[in-house]
Structure formats: structure tokens, C-alpha cells
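Re: the 188-residue chain
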Amino acid sequence: MGKKYIVNLMDETQIIVEVGANSTGAALIASNPISALTPYTEPDLEQVRKEAYDEGYDDAKGGYENGFENGMIVAWEAAKKLWDLKGEMIKAFRKYSVFDILNCYTASEVIEKLKAYEQEQDAEIKVGDEVINRDKKAVVTEITDRFVRIMYSDGGGYALFSEDMTKTGRHFPEIAAVLEKMRGEQDG
């Protein structure tokens, strides 16, 4: 699209001649009667300002309402997690009850502490976790106070210190279930 210009025409003007070039560079001459043109009108700047303000206000109000609603959802989820913690509250908050936590921390602090606690739990190695040791993947089959027992895909295994392995993020709950089932059959 070409540039636009405002041209002041005398009231007696009947025809306007346009001179230009097409994409090949050939000259174009066209004429139009003035009646075919749309006259320019000054915009109502006060109306433009009002419309822009109203639109901005509505956007901000919607954003606030959405943010408030999302905040309520996050706070409610945190409250449910607190309830589910039960015996773990002392580890996560150094408090013994939901009542103590609600009286000692703000909602933001509770959410932050819950996130930190969940990350700590995710970092903890569990039976069924896939780990890497010496560039080989293995699955954790037993955890004691002194070592972690792992099994490689070929069936071989070792007992290692947890510092000697890295979690991959994959977890095989079926391994933990089978081992638990086997222990139950041995005890029975």
C-alpha cells in the first residue's frame, strides 16, 4: 500500500488526476470525479480517548478478576495439600497442625513452603525410580539407611550410596508393587 496524503482542494475542483507507476515501472494516469472521493473528517479526539480508556479499563478489570480467581484456586489447592500432609507438617513447616500453620504464615508463604517441600520430595530417591550410575541406567529396588540397591536392565545390580547416582525423572511404580507383593508373600 502506498503513502497517504491529505490534499486540500478548492471548492470549484471537479476532477482530480492521479499520476503513478505500476510494478513494471509503466506510468499510470487516472482521473476521478471529486464526487467519487470520500471527504476527510477530523476524528472526535475526545471520543477516541474515551473509547481507549474504556477498553483499557475493561481489559484491566478482566485481568484483575482472572488473577483474583486464579489466586483463589491456588490458595484452595494449597489448603487441600495442607490437609493431606498430616504427619508431614512438621517436616514441611515445623508446625504440628493446620491451625498453627494458618496462624503463623501468610497464604503466599504457605504456597512457597509447600512448593519447596514438594521439590524436596521429588529429589528424594524412592523404590522404582530410574537412576543413572556410571553412565548406565538402573532402577532402585531397595533403600536402607546405609545404601541404595539398584538393578540394571541385564539383571545385574549393586548397592551404592545415593550420592553415586542421579535420578532421570522416570519412575516405575510396578517394580515397587511387585517387590512389596513378594515381601508380603515371604512374610505370610
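The helical segments are 45-85, 89-93, 98-104, 107-123, 173-187.
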